[in-house]
Write a structure and sequence with these properties.
The chain is mainly alpha-helical and about 200 residues long. The protein is built from 4 helices and 3 strands; from the N terminus they run H-H-H-H-E-E-E. The protein has a 3-stranded antiparallel β-sheet with strand order 2-1-3, with no helix packed on it.
Length: about 200
């Protein structure tokens, strides 16, 4: 079935998705600030890295709304208030949000766009749904490590990278402070997980 964009549910879903990604980006930026205040640079960067990707998703959805430029759209949405005073709660909330976007929201939006004849928009929704699953898995991994007290400790020796100066150390745990640049333990990450990681 083909439907005019102006009358489509896809148009509304694009605005819902734009608003969702914008709200998510801001909440992750706030979470990053909390992590920064606790000298948990790795968690701060996890939230900032993901926030930047959410911003890109918002822009992708917004560009599809070009035909509606100048219009005011009213859409209904549910947005969680994910304010917490500890990083584990923030990570778990982010994990849940990302899985929701993957499992339900964007898959369904993509299916609707396909039914309405907007294959390019459907592709974007479906692909971004896959990215949200990756986001959820990443938040889950770091939440699990934090909860288990293993964010900076491992059962076996591995490489730890300082995200400030790039120093790498082989050990079962990250140094309490980088011996080279003297930044706090919160700057250490498992090398395989760093942006240009070593195995």
């Amino acid at each position: 079935m083909s439907i005019a964009f102006a009358e489509s549910e896809t148009k509304k879903n694009l605005m819902r998705a734009f608003a969702c990604e914008s709200q998510t980006r801001n909440s992750y930026t706030f979470a990053a600030e909390q992590a920064k205040a606790l000298d948990m640079y790795v968690i701060e960067m996890l939230f900032r890295y993901t926030a930047d990707q959410e911003r890109e998703h918002a822009e992708i959805f917004y560009r599809f709304l070009q035909e509606a430029a100048g219009e005011t759209m009213i859409v209904d949405c549910d947005y969680p208030v994910e304010i917490a005073d500890n990083l584990l709660a923030l990570l778990r909330a982010a994990q849940h949000r990302e899985y929701e976007e993957h499992d339900h929201i964007y898959k369904e939006f993509g299916d609707v766009a396909l039914q309405e004849g907007f294959s390019e928009i459907a592709f974007a929704f479906h692909q971004i749904a896959r990215v949200e699953k990756i986001h959820g898995e990443r938040f889950e991994e770091y939440a699990d490590l934090l909860e288990q007290g293993k964010l900076f400790v491992s059962d076996r020796a591995l490489k730890w990278s300082c995200l400030n100066c790039g120093s790498v150390f082989d050990s079962k745990e990250a140094p309490s402070q980088c011996p080279v640049c003297h930044h706090a333990r919160g700057y250490f990450i498992r090398s395989y997980a760093s942006p240009f990681g070593l195995t």
